[in-house]
Amino acid sequence: MLSPHQVTTNPDQNNCVLVVPLIISLSLIFATVVNFRCAKIQRKALPMSLDLAIREGISKAFASLYSFELASAEVALQETRKEFEGSFTFTTFQFAGRVKKRPDELAQELGDFLKENVDEVEDYNVVKGFLNIVIADSVWLKTFNSILKDEQFGSHPSNGQTVMVEYSSPNTNKPLHLGHLRNNFLGYSISQVLKANGYKVVMANLINDRGIHICKSMIAYLRFGGNKTPEEYGKKGDHMVGDFYVRFDQEYKSEIEELIVEKRNEYPALDSVEDLKARKKEIEKKGKKNELSAEEREQLNAIKELFNRAEKEAPIFLEAQDLLRKWEAGEPAVYDLWKKMNGWVYAGFEDTYKRIGVSFDKYYYESDTYLLGKDLVMEGLEKGAFYKKEDGSVWCDLTNEGLDEKLVQRGDGTSVYMTQDMGTADLKYKDFTLDKSIYVVGNEQDYHFDVLKRIMKRLERPYAEGIYHMSYGMVDLPHGRMKSREGTVVDADDLVDEMVQTAKQRTDELGKIDGFTEEQAEKLYHQLALGALKYFILRVDPKKRMVFNPEESVDFQGDTGPSIQYTFARISALLRKGKEDGVAFENIDLSAYNGLEAQERDVIVALSNFPKVVADAGRNYAPSEVASYAYDLSRVFSRFYAELPVFKAEPEVIAFRLALSSAVAKVIEKAMNMLGVEVPERM
Question: What domains are there in the chain, each with its CATH number?
């Protein structure tokens, strides 16, 4: 057993330069953790064809023995508890009375029938009314042989369908932050999962590059930027522009308070803006209890009106509104400034995308698409899908579907977000003839995308049914929500830097990395950092809101990305040792291998479940299922590795175990790549 400060070059033990001390110490907790986890997952699922064969066998047994019809689809199989022999269990209690048998007697007779008539069943045992079914080793060896021969194992054949996954969709007034990271990691990962499920995938990014929020950054730059470039500020372009967005908010609040002070003459007893806010809060609290007097209600309305007027009349806000009107009118000077500042931001985005390992096949820009959809509004009016109110505004009435009336065009003929999204959906279909269009957007937009899908159905668009909102929960900090305009965000670039520094620091605790060049070491630090960050985020069900705790995210032990990366590196070391020793394990003849140890069988069972996990993750739009599988597989392998020394066996056994290890490495790599995580061969 290695201590946290030891490095071994014995390939049968590790043959890895061990980077993270806490990862090394995983072996210390395997004895207490692995057995529990393996008991839970080692037989979590069987190959679909085998599962079907057993269920059909049980169905036939009921028909043959008791003339009782039980469809194979109604046969429920469970994983066998660790303390009993078997791969899975059938419970007989609910059927015993129907066939007039005791539960244990029914289980015994079913077991006899399966053993006699189903080739896959080698044996069985009965515990009260539980029938534990043992699968023949020959079946598992045959399964493993098929895995070895299938280079595309885990991937499904083409289904002839094209899907677009739209993700990232940043605003050009700020850099990417932690919330964007969850979006990007989810979008990229589900794209890879869908590719493995046979889809042709188009990864798209709709950039929100226009609107009042962009103009806020522009106004702040005009006021305080001094016409300097990001290089002159010594910052990435997206960071510099984001700083001016925060500066706008600071100046805006200051001007609001100045206006309030000027206009508060009617409240001489309230000496400051803070007094006004406190009084407003006090009255509102009483209002919740229905305890307001007429005088207090009048005072509350007056204070609210004072704040509203100040917010609308603040000079910097009026300047931003005027700048937006000038942009929409195409004023050259404004357009040129907008183009220049957005260019700085795009360069910053691309640098971040490259660092975090995500990419796109197609970019759309809101400045090009915000006017789209007006033709669809006219079409909707002609088809009777929409109606026009007296003020000229156009609406879609969804009340008969349990929703409300949705505005699709203002009375002055200008577009709203729904108008734009309708037109963009049409543009996407024209560009790629999509079967599915997936929007990776936070769950605060659940209603919006529900409405979009219903509207496109009313417009009889062929792609409407394929619209899917991959809704995900927001990312909070331990102290609450992040707010970009106040600068209270975890910046994506800073977070990656912190993670890389943590990986490096923990590596340095071990001393020199033998055989690594400086470039190789830096690459490894980055792989570990991104592995920890992506896995931490993607292991959580997308639908769940999550709290990001920076301290927890850099923990390199337990259910983490680096621990799985370590398993892969350890296997790579074993395989290198095997090749150095001349062991022929890459084209192994399984006929020379007789019998399976329980740990070997567990690994094959876990491997065989990979295609089903991929299919389930694609169907459920849940990369978290792939993350969970990768961790479970690495734990099953670790138990096998700890209990069955690879090189202390007969030659044919060594070859088999190396082949088994190689298959695990390939599947771990495929699974982690679906999460966007690289797995290093040396650690």
Answer: 21-42+510-674 (1.10.730.10), 48-140 (3.30.1360.70), 212-329 (no CATH)
